[in-house]
C-alpha cells in the first residue's frame, strides 16, 4: 500500500533565477486554457481529463492529462506549498512524488529520467542519479531514504 504524504513539509523557498520568465497567466490547472489539438490529444472538442493530487487536505487539480508526455515529468506546486513531481509512464499510469531530491536538497526530481527495474517504475534524479520507486518513494540505491508519495486520480 502506498503511503500518502501530508502537506506538513515547509514550502519551497526558491527565489526566481536571474533572467527567469514571469509566470504565465491562466494555467491548465485553473481551467482557463482551452484544449488545443495535438498529436497526443486529438480534436479540440475532446474531453480534457484533469490529473488531481491529494495533498492531505483535499484533492487539487495540477494539470490536464494530455500535457503529461509519457516518460517525462512536470513540477506542480500544491495548495499547501509543497512541490510535487508528476509523471506519466509509458503504460499511461500517473505517479506523483515529492519533487525534492533528499540527497542534494534541490527540487529537481520532475526533471529525472523514468525507467523500470523488474517491473518497478522509478525516476532517476538528474543530479546524483539516485533512483526512486514511483509507487513507494523508496530510494532503490539507499533503502533508508525515501521521498513522499501522493495519491492521484484522473477525472
Secondary-structure blueprint:
Elements lengths: L49 E5 L4 E6 L8 E5 L5 E6 L5 E5 L14 E5 L2 E5 L6 E3 L15 E2 L1 E3 L1
Antiparallel strand pairs: 1-2, 1-10, 3-4, 4-5, 5-9, 6-7, 7-8
Number of helices: 0
Radius of gyration: 16 Å
> Would you count the extended β strands for me?
10
How does the major sheet shape up?
A: 4 strands, antiparallel
Classify the oligomer.
single chain
The helix/strand class is mainly beta
Order of helices and strands: EEEEEEEEEE
Which CATH class of the domain at 50-154 applies here?
A: Mainly Beta
Which outline best applies? globular
State the CATH architecture of the domain at 50-154: 3-layer Sandwich
Beta-strand share of residues: 25-35%
At the fold tier of CATH, the topology name of the domain at 50-154 is Rieske Iron-sulfur Protein
Terminal-residue CA separation: 22 Å
Strand order of the largest sheet: 3-4-5-9
> Helicity level, as a percent range?
under 10%
CATH superfamily of the domain at 50-154: Rieske [2Fe-2S] iron-sulphur domain
* Mean residue pLDDT: 80
Biased composition (Low complexity): 10-26
Protein name: Rieske domain-containing protein
Domain Rieske: 60-155
Pfam families: Rieske_2
Amino acid at each position: 500500500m502506498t503511503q500518502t504524504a501530508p502537506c506538513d513539509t515547509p514550502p519551497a523557498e526558491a527565489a526566481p533565477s536571474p533572467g527567469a520568465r514571469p509566470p504565465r497567466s491562466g494555467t491548465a490547472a485553473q481551467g482557463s486554457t482551452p484544449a488545443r489539438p495535438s498529436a497526443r490529444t486529438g480534436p479540440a472538442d475532446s474531453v480534457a481529463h484533469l490529473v488531481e493530487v491529494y495533498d492531505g487536505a483535499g484533492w487539487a487539480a495540477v494539470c490536464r492529462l494530455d500535457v503529461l508526455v509519457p516518460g517525462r515529468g512536470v513540477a506542480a506546486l500544491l495548495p499547501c506549498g509543497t512541490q510535487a513531481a508528476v509523471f506519466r509512464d509509458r503504460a499511461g499510469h500517473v505517479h506523483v512524488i515529492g519533487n525534492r531530491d533528499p540527497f542534494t536538497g534541490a527540487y529537481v526530481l520532475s526533471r529525472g529520467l523514468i525507467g523500470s527495474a523488474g517491473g518497478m517504475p522509478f525516476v532517476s534524479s538528474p543530479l546524483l542519479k539516485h533512483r526512486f520507486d514511483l509507487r513507494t518513494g523508496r530510494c532503490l540505491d539507499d533503502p533508508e531514504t525515501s521521498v513522499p508519495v501522493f495519491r492521484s486520480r484522473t477525472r
